[in-house]
């Protein structure tokens, strides 16, 4: 019958609650005596289907039911179905007589966990059947919950992917692309492109502290706050200041959001930016790297913090602006050495003749190869702004 089932409930001092549904007082007493002799079971007895349904409807379900199909107020498989249909997650073991073993088999096809013949009611058989039934049901419930969680995570992933830009923006004089790679079903990273319709674009890179569904929910709210405030404020420092107040309302104290917010004016070939725990990198045509340093604290920490514009740079032809989350430069390989910001900038410069989307793909691929055979441990997001 496979491996021995877990007996942790009884071993830990807990006892399994068993409901015996049997209209024969003698048979019920035999079952009770043999189970209580084992020491791991508390047994309650009822004699009719009506009593059974009334007791189950009170809310405290037993760990298992031992059921005689033929009662004074119900007979055959209908007895099983009347209990199983409203309580499908309740393990039921069928008690069968000498001539109705086939009913036990049919009940198992309908969802019963096992059947035991009344002529074979020794304690060992009954106890083993109960323990296996309870254990199988626990495992089934865990698997059921896991499938439900997986479905919810897949749905959350689809929503998050839908909110990321599907296509690179078409900006005169620039080639811009971004990519987000999550280590879980959902990501705490995101990027965004916001078109103002006058040659100006807002470009956002953000990283919510942590991984999984919680940070992913924060990314959705943060994205919406930034998009809403982007329409209202010309000063990007003021914009992030206002957005930060909303982010503080939406996050726990331990969940903060680092971000780099840049406004690209394609007519003036100028990038104006503000950082909240993030910096950027400007790589010229010769491969020289200049950090776009920022001073702001992460958003979601202090609702009264005032963000200021950190800088404004002119982007001449051949320049590349690289934005990336720390999942890229902090990724570590066999020797525990980090991939590093310098290596990331070198990969971008080496591939500068390629489209921005391919540069981003080469960067992500380089990090993955660098870490192999070890798994990536953090979300990775990068945005490349290439001027021509």
Could you characterize what this model shows?
By secondary structure, this protein is of the alpha+beta class. It has eleven helices and 16 strands. The protein has a six-stranded antiparallel sheet with strand order 6-7-16-15-12-13. The protein is elongated and about 95 Å long. It comes from Stieleria magnilauensis.
Please summarize what this structure is:
The protein is of the alpha+beta class and 388 residues long. The protein has 11 helices and 16 strands.
Please tell me how large the radius of gyration is: 32 Å
The ordered string of helix (H) and strand (E) elements is: HEHEHEHEHEHEEEEHHEEEEEEHHHE
Low-confidence stretches: 1-13
Lateral strand order in the biggest sheet = 6-7-16-15-12-13
Query: Helical content, roughly?
Result: 25-40%
Distance between the termini: 71 Å
Largest sheet: 6 strands, antiparallel
Number of strands: 16
Cα shape? elongated
Structural class: alpha+beta
For the residues shown, what is the average pLDDT? 90
By DSSP (H or I, 4+ residues per run), the number of helices equals: 11
Tell me the β content.
15-25%
Enzyme class: hydrolase
Protein name: Phosphoserine phosphatase RsbU
GO molecular function: hydrolase activity
Organism: Stieleria magnilauensis
């Amino acid at each position: 019958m496979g491996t021995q089932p877990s007996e942790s409930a009884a071993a830990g001092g807990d006892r399994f609650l068993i409901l015996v549904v049997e209209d024969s007082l003698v048979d019920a007493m035999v079952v009770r005596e043999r189970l209580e002799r084992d020491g791991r079971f508390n047994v309650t007895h009822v004699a009719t289907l009506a009593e059974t349904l009334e007791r189950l409807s009170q809310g405290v379900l037993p760990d298992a039911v031992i059921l005689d199909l033929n009662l004074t107020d119900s007979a055959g498989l209908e007895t099983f179905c009347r209990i199983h249909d409203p309580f499908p997650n309740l393990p039921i073991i069928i008690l069968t007589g000498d001539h109705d073993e086939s009913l036990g088999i049919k009940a198992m096809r309908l969802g019963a966990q096992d059947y035991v013949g009344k002529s074979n009611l020794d304690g060992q058989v009954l106890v083993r059947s109960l323990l296996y039934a309870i254990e199988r049901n626990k495992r089934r419930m865990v698997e059921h919950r896991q499938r439900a969680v997986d479905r919810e995570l897949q749905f959350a992933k689809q929503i998050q992917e839908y909110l990321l830009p599907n296509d690179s923006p078409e900006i005169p004089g620039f080639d811009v692309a971004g990519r987000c790679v999550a280590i879980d079903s959902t990501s705490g990273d995101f990027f965004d492109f916001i078109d103002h319709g006058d040659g100006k674009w807002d470009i956002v890179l953000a990283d919510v502290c942590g991984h999984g569904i919680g940070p992913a929910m924060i990314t959705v709210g943060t994205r919406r706050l930034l998009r809403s405030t982007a329409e209202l404020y010309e000063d990007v420092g003021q914009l992030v200041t206002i957005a930060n107040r909303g982010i503080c309302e939406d996050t726990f104290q331990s969940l903060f959001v680092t971000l780099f917010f840049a406004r690209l004016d394609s007519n003036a070939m100028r990038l104006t930016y503000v950082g909240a725990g993030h910096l950027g990198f400007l790589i010229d045509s010769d491969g020289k790297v200049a950090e776009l340093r920022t001073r702001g604290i992460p958003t979601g920490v202090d609702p009264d913090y005032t963000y200021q514009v950190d800088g404004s740079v002119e982007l001449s032809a051949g320049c590349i602006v690289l934005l990336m989350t720390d999942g890229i430069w902090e990724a570590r390989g066999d020797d525990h050495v980090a991939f590093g910001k310098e290596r990331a900038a070198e990969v971008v410069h080496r591939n500068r003749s390629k489209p921005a989307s391919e540069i981003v793909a080469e960067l992500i691929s380089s990090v993955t190869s660098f870490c192999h055979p070890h798994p990536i441990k953090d979300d990775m997001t990068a945005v490349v702004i290439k001027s021509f």
